[in-house]
Amino acid sequence: MGTTKRKSVLVLVTLSIHALLLAGCWDRTELNDLAIITAAGLDLTEDHQLELSVKIYLTSPSSSSQQMGGTSGPDKGAAGLSVVRSAVGLNMADAASRLQQLLSRRMFWGQDEVFVFGERLAKEGLAEPMEFLTRHYAPRERANVFVSKGAAKDVLLLNPPIERSVADMLREMSKSQTGLNVKMKELAQMMAGRAKAAVVPLVEIESEQENPTSFPLIRGTAVLKNGKMVGSVNDRATRGIMWLRNEIKEGTLTISPNNTKGYVSIQLLRAHTELIPHIQGDEWSITVRINARDDIVENTTDLDLSNPKHIKKLETELGYDMKQRTDMALAKAQKELNADIFRFADAFYRKYPKKWNENKDRWDDIFPKVKVKLEANPKISRPGLTGKNLFKPNQR
Amino acid sequence: MIEKGKISASQMGKMLYLAILPTAILTTPAITFKFAKQDLWISPIWALCGLIVIFVSLRLHRMYPGLNIVQACERIVGRFPGKIIGFIFPLFYLYFNGIIVREYSEFVVGAFLIRTPLIVVSGSIVLVCAIAARGGVEIVGRFSELILPAFITLFLLIVVPIIPDLQVTNMLPIMPEGIRPSIEGAIVLQTWFSEFLTASFLLPFVADQKKSQKSVYISLLAVILTLIVSNLVTLLLLGELTGNYTYPFLTVARYINLADFFTHLESLFMAIWVLGAFVKICVFFYVTVLGAAQWMNLSDYRPIVFPLGLLLILFSMWVAPNFQELTHAIATSVTLAIITLFVIIPGLLFCIAWVKRRLWIKS
User: Fold this and answer.
1) What average pLDDT does the segment A245-252 reach?
2) Mutate which of B39, B172, B235, B323 to disrupt the A interface (most A C-beta within 10 Å)?
3) pLDDT tops 50 at residue A17
4) Is the CB of A185 less than 8 angstroms away from the CB of B254?
5) Of A185, A192, A353, which has the smallest distance from its Cβ to B255's Cβ?
6) Is the pLDDT of residue A65 over 70?
7) C-alpha to C-alpha distances, B341 to A196, B74, B95, B131, B312, nearest whole angstrom
8) Interface of B with A (CB under 8 A)
9) Which pLDDT score, from 0 to 100, does residue A75 have?
10) Which residues of B are less than 8 Å from A354 in CB distance?
């Protein structure tokens, strides 16, 4: 009797101790102990050191005086909920630990969805910072990456009015698929892949610095070769890159058909790009087959687009427009930058693994000479809600 | 007999499945990728060692019903050599379990509880496993029956949401250099398939013997299928990068993003890992304890559970000074050791037993 009682008391005591420990209160981390980073920017300083800037979302902006260490001022924008801090170090990890010294809260990378690399750093090479970002457990593989024209820190300092913070803005803008949407995993894949060439969306700042309504804008593409930025591509050619990389998901194309005045705009519904490589003797060529489905959304020409004959003609014109854009991208990549940003190397490897392995060291010589044939098949499926233009009764 | 509990054939199958898979999902994609490249999903099909080991365990158990391989060994090659092998087996199980405990805690500490000392993580899992193993084979069997549905659900919760992010082109071209790379990649996997020898220690406790053969083979098939799925998912997501990540499947879980709110699912993977590793360590620990007790002719194995548990924690510290050496050892010497001990020796034993039986029938 006595032993069972003693035993049950012992069990009870053990259980109560567990109850105390398992609640986890003894080493809790409250939300306001964390500096939640929503975006990080990386720049190269004059003396070739790395400057890491982070946008910190203030979970409870109780501390009124945010001026610390004189590194950078707090945002005075409309939101006023985020601050930017930056620190200089020898490499990523060093800069990160120096940055921690400036903060009263522990840095938390888990919510960091945006990484911006300054143009100067990108030209010097992204391999080093990417090493940290892939090795360390905290940065997310799904975070978006950008290259900024000018300093990355300036992008972080913005407080665009629509979204909660600049990080959300950049992320949502790249998600809308009108520009490139590159995740850290994809950048790592491109940099380490067969072609050793990568594309990263370029971020520009619209309007002047001190203006509270200035906002970041994705315009064009930075092209990386062997981890270093070798050039940039403008907005129009970026669409060409996206066509070739099979990354176009939505968009509006406006063309002006021959022999008419005015424009026809069509909306892209679906698009798919296929790369079909051929090797004949020493000649490497690739056929790019683009299938697209579109709807007409606007027509200010004098063509009656309910007439199938005109649709055929329009499709040819569309194909021509697509060819122009892809040609622009190709010319830039093949002739000027010699960077295989269209994954041609992968396509060749998949079809001709043996030939590829024999020639993989010569890829830099082969790529500029690869003949590209474009087969664009845009199909216009519907005229929209009106057939003839309501206000132009005498359309052809 | 030391153990009086009984398990069902399906429980044994589930125990084996959970005793083999968890660590295989975690580390093999990276090692296999180094050899097999985009054919790494084919590698699990070459489960030759698994087939041999299962065949040998089943046949030996049919020849010597109610005896595990160590006990049968004494009958086959005599008392003294039998005792030597009977010593090596529990010792190796202990060593190998040490590696598993170390892998488990290295992962938990390396990817999640960065600041927690290794010993706390390994100590707590060994304590729990020791208590379970002390309960006997029935308890371990029921645990695996209980945990398996959760394990599979969590596994699917990682595999299904990642489907939109997969790129099928990553697996092309299939077998550009023939089947050789995929077979080379399968060599490391043989370590895991050899672990099916554990079946030999569980077979004597199976109540419905007739179903045991089917159950073990289903278990092998399930392991192969799960490995194909996990390797394929990893490959289709990460492509060329698969070999560079320490825990590729963890990266898969981290990458999941469903509708922007169902994200950061590595905690699910952690749950899989803890559940799976628990059963795995339990089964191996139970085999160690049972083997040791039989070797010393003890009437009960319970008194040595906790001392061996302490030894297990120490082994987990001793196996390697750091993670790099651990993975290096797994890819090289451990593979060799385990194939010798779990495949070649049982194979030889089986041959001797078979010849002896033939001679005996003739005379």
Assistant:
1) 81
2) B172
3) yes
4) no
5) A185
6) no
7) 45, 16, 13, 28, 20
8) 110-111, 114, 169, 172-173, 176-177, 237-241, 244, 251, 254-255, 257, 263-264
9) 42
10) 176
Residue A60's pLDDT is what?
Answer: 60
Handedness of CA B249, B250, B252, B253 (dihedral sign): positive
Task: With beta carbons less than 8 A apart as the criterion, state whether A224 and A200 touch.
Answer: yes
Residue B333, CA distances (Å) to B33, B100, B323, B330 in order? 19, 15, 15, 7
Q: What percent of chain B has pLDDT over 70?
A: 100
Q: Are A180 and A69 in contact (CB under 8 A)?
A: no
Contact state of A192 with B176 under an 8 Å Cβ cutoff = no
Does A141 contact B251 at a Cβ distance shorter than 8 Å? yes
**In the sheet that A371-382 helps form, which strands lie side by side, from edge to edge?**
A251-255, A264-280, A283-299, A371-382
Nearest Cα residue in chain B from A343: B169
Which of A245, A129, A261, A232 lies closest to A184, judged by CA?
Answer: A129
> CA B136, B142, B147, B148 torsion: positive or negative?
positive
Residue of A140, A188, A353 with shortest CB distance to B176: A353
Cβ–Cβ gap B241/A192 under 8 Å = yes
pTM strictly above 0.90: no
Please write the tens of the pLDDT for every residue from B135-153: 889 999 999 999 999 999 9
What is the β-pairing status of strands A34-44 and A114-118? parallel
What is the number of residues in chain B?
363
Closest Cβ opposite residue B241 in set A140, A189, A351: A189
Mean pLDDT on A205-212:
66
Give the CATH number of domain A245-396.
3.30.300.210
Spans of all domains in chain B: 9-362
Contacts with A355 from chain B: Cβ below 8 Å: none
Q: How far is B129 from chain A (nearest CA, A)?
A: 18
B243 vs A2, higher pLDDT: B243
Cα gap B288→B283, rounded to integer Å: 9
Contact B244 A349 (CB under 8 A): no
pLDDT tens per residue, range A275-320: 898 888 888 889 989 888 888 888 888 777 777 888 888 888 888 8
Q: Which of A137, A189, A351 shows the shortest C-beta gap to B240?
A: A189
Compare all CA atoms of chain A with the CA of B111 and give the residue at the minimum distance: A137
Alpha-carbon distance B12 to B143, whole Å? Answer: 11
ipTM of the complex: 0.77
**Is the predicted pLDDT of residue B344 greater than 80, yes or no?**
yes
Q: Using 50, 70 and 90 to split pLDDT, how confident is the model at A210?
A: low
Task: Determine, for residues B251 and A188 on separate chains, whether the beta-carbon distance falls below 8 Å.
Answer: no
Cβ contact B111–A137 (<8 Å): yes
Taking each helix axis from N to C end, the angle separating A184-192 and B209-238, rounded to the nearest 10 degrees, works out to 80
What is the pLDDT, as a whole number, of residue B187? 85
Indicate the domain borders of chain A: 30-233, 245-396
Contact (CB<8Å) A189/B238: yes
Please give the biggest Cα pair distance in chain B. Answer: 76
Residue A72: per-residue pLDDT? 40
Report residue A186: phi and psi, to 5°. -70, -40
Closest Cβ opposite residue A192 in set B169, B240, B264:
B240
The closest CB to that of B173, out of A192, A193, A353, belongs to A353
Task: Dump the DSSP string for B324-343.
Answer: HHHHHHIIIIIHHHHHIIII
Looking at residue B122, its pLDDT comes to: 92
Q: Pick from A71-85, A167-181, B159-173 the range whose average pLDDT is largest.
A: B159-173
Residue of B237, B240, B245, B251 to mutate when probing chain A, most A C-beta within 10 A: B240
Architecture of domain B9-362: Up-down Bundle (1.20)
Q: Please give the Cα distance from A22 to A18 (Å, whole number).
A: 6
